[in-house]
Amino acid sequence: MSTPAQAGVSPADRHAAAKRSTLVSVAVNVVLSTLQIVLGFFAHSQSLIADGFHSLSDLLADFVVLAANRVSHEAADANHPYGHARFETAASMLLGLLLLIVGIGMLWSAGMKMTNPELIPTVHPVALWVALLTLLCKEGLFRYMLRVAESVKSSMLVANAWHARSDAASSLVVAVGIGGNLMGYRFLDPLAAALVGFMIGRSGWKFAWSALSDLMDRGLSDHEVDEIRQTLAATPGVRNVHDLRTRHMGDYALVDAHLLVDGRISVSEGHYIAATARRRVLQHHRALDVLVHIDPEDDEGERNAYDLPFREAVMQRLRDSLGDSEAGGFEIQLHYLGGWLDLDIVLDDRLTAPDPAACEQLLARLKAALGELAQIRDIRILRPACAMHHERADD
């Protein structure tokens, strides 16, 4: 799966595309809403007036999108360390609630008209031509906005595009209702208004609920999570992946994961594995940030080992028992594994004789010195066959 960056889409591109498509939508909705409301009033068409106010709601939605698009691309700050991407999600929820309110209002108004059918007037034919013109304009606007939204992979712009498609569908219903009214079935005009209200309300509920789920930290789809898991598991040095969690952050995601590695590698190697795994997820998936936790062993089901001694406690016990000079003659590697503490003692060739018997004596003294630390499971003495050092010189 490619990220927007991989597809050649930068935040600046997304911002420019959102601004351009939204301004086009604003211009279209200003013209259509004015035309529908004014001519709908003179043509006695409730459905055309309702569709005009629907276009006005689109206009308000466009301004919400413009404002959210500007805020969502602001850099992270002290109050928003993960950035402002969720402002897009909040805007999508606001759009959904707006559609829901408009839909309920249109249903109510149409219902009141249909309870008094004798008061429903005959619509002027000009209303039908306005409805058909609106249908063509809204369908063209939808196709344009959806193409832009998909090119920059913005869920907010996709939502706004489908908002325009709902307008096109409602205009079709309005045209049918007006046509039926002109044929003598006067109740079809308010009925069309009611159907438009239902369609708008249903669309608004879907958008609002989806956005609310994202704001409540909804995770990515199972398919996307499996792809991220495969990317992490394919990183050299990673033995297993568990506790993988995701949550939406606007059009991106935040990812947390635990990676199992060899428990006896160095800290720097473990960090390199974690950094590599993180970089791969950022490169190949729509992740805004990735938090990687390195596990030296499978900690699922393992007993907690929070009472084990720290390095300073071990070294103090050795200094008290062996003296500062001898205790400083070797390096100690601590391994907290399986709920126990294992020690690897790496001797310094310059300070310690290579005699195996001397190593045995030292091991006995170490065990005696650390004997009271019951959490220590194993002590090993490691003596390099040849202590050498090489440092690369920069040219």
Automatic annotation (TrEMBL):
The chain crosses the membrane at residues 21-42, 89-108. This is Cation-efflux pump. It comes from Microvirgula aerodenitrificans. Pfam families: Cation_efflux (PF01545), ZT_dimer (PF16916). Keywords: Membrane, Transmembrane, Transmembrane helix, Transport. The lineage of its organism: Bacteria, Pseudomonadati, Pseudomonadota, Betaproteobacteria, Neisseriales. Its main location: membrane. SUPFAM superfamilies: Cation efflux protein cytoplasmic domain-like, Cation efflux protein transmembrane domain-like. InterPro entries: Cation_efflux, Cation_efflux_CTD, Cation_efflux_CTD_sf, Cation_efflux_TM, Cation_efflux_TMD_sf, CDF_Transporter. GO terms for cellular component: membrane.
